Each structure stands twice: as C-alpha cells, then as structure tokens.
Amino acid sequence: MSKKNKSTKQKEMSFIEKARRAQIVECAIETIAEVGYAQASLGQIAKRANISKGVISYHFTNKEELLEQIPIEYYMAWQSYIAPRIEAQKSPKEMLRVYIESNLTFVDENRKHVFAVIETVSNQRNADGKLRFAADHDEAIILPIENILTLGMKEGIFREFTRPSARVMALTIRNAIDGFTLELMRKPHLDVQEYTRELVTIFDKSTKK
Questions:
Q1: Angle, nearest 10°, between helix axes 63-87 and 42-49?
Q2: What is the CA angle 82-84-87, rounded to 5?
Q3: How many CA atoms lie within 13 A of 62 on its CB side?
C-alpha cells in the first residue's frame, strides 16, 4: 500500500475502526510491557485483545507496522502533555523546571507505554539494519531543551553557552531524565517526586548565570 493510499484510508476510517486500532495498539503496549519486544507475537496481542489475528491484519499490514505505532503515539501524547505546560510559563527558568517536572510526571503516569517504547525503539530496525527511530527521536526530543537554553541566554537568565556546549547541556538534561526512566523500570518503587526535586535543583544551579 502506498503512503498516499494509506493516508487516505486513515482519513476515511470510521469511529469504530479508529477505536479498534487504538485497542490493538493498547494491547500491544501491554504485551510488550509484560514479555518484551522479541516475545510479543501477533497471536499474544490478539489473545489479549480477545480478537483473531485476522482482525489485526485487517488494520495493520504486519507486526512491524503495528509496533511502530507505539513510539509514534507515545510521542504525540508526550508532546500534547508537555508543550502547553512549557508555553504557559513566562520565564526560561520556569520553562526548564516545568520541562523536567512534566517529563518525569508523564513517565510516572505512563509506565507501561514507556517500557514498550524503550523496547520498540531499541529493537525495531529498517531494512538496512539501522534503528528505525534513532535520529528522528533524538532531534525531536533535544530541540525543545536547546530552545529553552537559548531563550534563557538571550534574556540574561542563564549563563552563556556556545552552540556545542548548549547541545551538551541539553543532552545532559535529557539523559538524566531518560536514565531515571530506565531506573524506574527496574525499581518501580523509587520516589519520583524526590528525584524530580533534585534534578530541578541540579540544573537550576548548573544553568544559573
């Protein structure tokens, strides 16, 4: 199916078809969260959704097409959650605080989806063997932090960063969030609020002019 035809089909989907697709994706998330990417078969996903594999095949060309919806839908939900909270802030300092806080809150409230995303982006590859989501994921996630840092420098709130060092700081902030995300998957009883407070303090001091 061409991208054009696929796009047209998605636009023409009925409410029931959209609901069924959403149900299948949700069951895929739960399956991967339970057994991992490699072990998540269409049969297991269909069983969890209480449907036949044929129903999945009607909505998705193959397992890869289904599972690639997991990070796509997560990113869309993440963006819808994070963006308005940052935009509501007037100061770059508050934007950075809210970026960190809202990211960790979103992770905490969507743990199964987070685990499924980590499994999927770490395993799904293109025909040439390269990771499917690596490059696009990195830029889309890092750019908002760089924009906040740049704005803070212009307004004289943050210390001066060169372009390379601003990228280093943005990567450090993002890696601190992602690192805790992995730790939370291993140790689900960790205190997210305590970690959030500490992370906000660390980067408030390290960006201060």
A1: 60
A2: 110
A3: 3
Of 209, 177, 36, the residue nearest 97 (C-alpha): 177
pTM of the full structure: 0.83
pLDDT tens-digit profile, the chain (209 residues): 444 444 445 556 688 888 999 999 999 999 999 999 888 999 999 999 999 999 999 999 998 899 989 999 999 999 999 999 999 999 999 999 999 999 999 999 999 999 999 988 887 777 777 776 665 556 778 889 999 999 999 999 999 988 788 999 999 999 999 999 999 989 999 999 999 999 999 999 999 98
